[in-house]
Amino acid sequence: MASPDRAPLTALVLNCTLSPSPAASSTELLGQQVLDALATHGTTGSQVRVVDHDVRPGVELDMGDGDAWPRIREQVMAADILVLATPTWMGQHSSVAQRVLERLDAELSEEDDEGRLLTFGKVAVAVVVGNEDGAHHISAILFQALNDVGFTIPAHGVTYWNGEAMHTVDYKDLDETPEVTASATATLAANAAHLARLLRREGYPAVPG
Questions:
Q1: CA torsion angle for 25, 53, 159, 136 (degrees, to 10)?
Q2: Cα–Cα distance between 209 and 207 in angstroms, integer?
Q3: Beta partners for 97?
Q4: Beta carbons within 8 Å of 86's beta carbon, 6+ residues apart
């Protein structure tokens, strides 16, 4: 049996593009590049294109009547690393990403026997793409929200690409991955896998009181 330091990790990309499958997605492309980089650190993973599923508005674990979030949540809770990936629209994260954050709010009511949120042992990172400015603003929002609901953010926990403002070139249209984005992706993957193994081995203490 592999030691906790080398045991395989799992990752899940929640792709918050506004484009349903099978449309090409820059967000999916960079999300997959993160999964590929994580694979070099003993991590297997998959993507969910959230817009393909009927995720209902609300802040409960299950909004009933065919709500798809409970099935997606099962995958989130089974993963060591959550990759929240969003395009940039009007300088903001997508409405789909906002819906995911709102549904994750329900985790504030879910605790283990020692008072810890069930997300306390999980790492979260961000992926942002867009042909306009916004990546720093968006990652700041995602980091705060994900941390609020119990995820741990590693150093250098975002990879992104900002295209030239007011132009139409998307990340998926590039002939090759820019070196700075590739470097950010590699660092994110190394740090996320390292932190996930630390949390698996040590975890957080019981909540006082």
A1: 100
A2: 7
A3: none
A4: 16, 17, 27, 93, 94, 96, 97, 126, 127, 128, 129, 138, 142
Tell me: the pLDDT tens digits for 148-195? 999 999 999 999 999 988 788 999 999 999 999 999 999 999 999 999
* DSSP 3-state of 167: coil
The pLDDT of residue 7 is 79
User: For the domain with range 9-201, which CATH number is right: 3.40.980.10, 3.90.190.20, 3.40.50.360, 3.40.50.300?
Assistant: 3.40.50.360
Task: Write down the pLDDT at residue 5.
Answer: 63
- Phi/psi for 152 (5° steps) reads -105, 130
Phi, psi of 189 (to 5 degrees): -65, -45
Q: Domain boundaries in the chain?
A: 9-201
Q: Is the pLDDT of residue 45 over 80?
A: yes
Side chain identity at 81, as an amino acid letter? I
What pTM was estimated for this model as a whole? Answer: 0.95
